[in-house]
Amino acid sequence: MTVRLTVNTPTMASLSTAAAATRLLPSATATATRFSHRSSLALKSLRSSPPLSRVFLPQKSSSHRFSSGRIGYSTVSSPKCSVSNPEQLKGARQDIKELLKTTFCHPILVRLGWHDAGTYNKDIQEWPQRGGANGSLRFEIELKHGANAGLVNALKLLQPIKDKYSSVTYADLFQLASATAIEEAGGPKIPMKYGRVDVTGPEQCPEEGRLPDAGPPSPASHLRDVFYRMGLNDKEIVALSGAHTLGRSRPDRSGWGKPETKYTKDGPGAPGGQSWTVKWLKFDNSYFKDIKERRDEDLLVLPTDAVLFEDPSFKEYAEKYAVDQDAFFKDYAEAHAKLSNLGAKFDPPEGFSLDDSPASGQPEKFVAAKYSTGKRELSDAMKQKIRAEYQAVGGSPDKPLGSNYFLNIMIVIAILAYVTSLVMN
């Protein structure tokens, strides 16, 4: 059964929480709605894209949404790009920030980045067979995977940005959008690196099934099966689950959650669904607090959410994050960055950061060659010191020494030393 949470806002934490990439991220339903009054495209995209958690939930008749000719998204029209340009990436980041302000599509963008990276299998060495963050999710064959239902809407939202910045790979764009969405929702700054290379054709897409289904008989084991395959550990599973602080689930799309609650009836975005937190477009540690207390029936708790406070190893981190938001932000940022690099092939191999330029006000870096060649004007203090030393041995600025004074002294000393040695012998 394919998982598909109708959470209107894609949640990062859904990936880990739902124990499956699909179920972990929230749907962009909510985000599209607010944008719908400005663009019917945005509205549809937010409604149809499920969150991570929703992804793990049953995806009802998802494949028909992606039938050819209906998607309205084409990868052929976009120029191919093998390496991302740092300056264009910075421009794309600014445009993504503006997109978030008008569409509130934070959850679905988070989910997009997670699902592109979440197919990684650490036991496969070859690229791109190993899956991961390689831009393969842009192809229709992978979009049709049940876990990815609705993500075509995220692609529609990002396509104008991709067209504008042609020297940016899809793999980088997906991860840039995901990290930016977290940061703009109030979350931590993600230590991202870029330079990911895109796969070139649909034949390089991973097979379906790497993103888990919902409703596992053993939630803890299911989460570990999925994330251990990616090379992630228990701390990272719990930290990533915290992204469920974003988004909501719709029962008509995922089979989970209430049709409407007091927190979702007025949007933003399309009204309805059930969220994990009260402020489901704000990234903080509310998810852990609300899951632990379970005092509000209007807030969603999935089996993979509840197990974080039941499994002894998971509980250690969940309890910590519920009381220490700084610790959660630190661990989340590291886990998100790690997830975004899974399976990626970088050019240059070490990747590059968009924040490499030195901050203003920092001291100039010392370069020896700069100070060892060329004429340099002496300071007044140095000139005075040289003048004093020159005059001390009988010279003056207007009358140079008649002979090499220092050489004469050295000769006299040498002669005396030689004579002394002869006398002693």
TrEMBL record:
Q: Where in the cell is it found?
A: Plastid, Chloroplast
> Known catalysed reaction(s)?
2 a phenolic donor + H2O2 = 2 a phenolic radical donor + 2 H2O; L-ascorbate + H2O2 = L-dehydroascorbate + 2 H2O
Domain (Plant heme peroxidase family profile): give its ranges: 109-362
Q: A GO BP term, please?
A: response to reactive oxygen species
Work out whether the entry's keyword set contains Acetylation: no
Q: What Gene3D superfamilies does its record include?
A: 1.10.520.10, Peroxidase, domain 2
**Molecular functions per Gene Ontology:** heme binding; L-ascorbate peroxidase activity; lactoperoxidase activity; metal ion binding
Q: Which InterPro entries is this protein grouped with?
A: Ccp1-like (IPR044831), Haem_peroxidase (IPR002016), Haem_peroxidase_sf (IPR010255), Peroxidase_I (IPR002207), Peroxidases_heam-ligand_BS (IPR019793)
Compositionally biased intervals (Basic and acidic residues): 249-265
Q: Note down the stretches annotated as region Disordered.
A: 243-271
Name any GO cellular component annotation: chloroplast
Keyword annotations of the record: Calcium, Chloroplast, Heme, Hydrogen peroxide, Iron, Membrane, Metal-binding, Oxidoreductase, Peroxidase, Plastid, Potassium, Transit peptide, Transmembrane, Transmembrane helix
The cofactors named for this UniProt entry are: heme b
Query: Pfam families in the record, alphabetically?
Result: peroxidase
Q: What is its main location?
A: plastid
Summarizing the function annotation, the protein's role is:
Plays a key role in hydrogen peroxide removal.
Q: What is this protein called?
A: Plant heme peroxidase family profile domain-containing protein
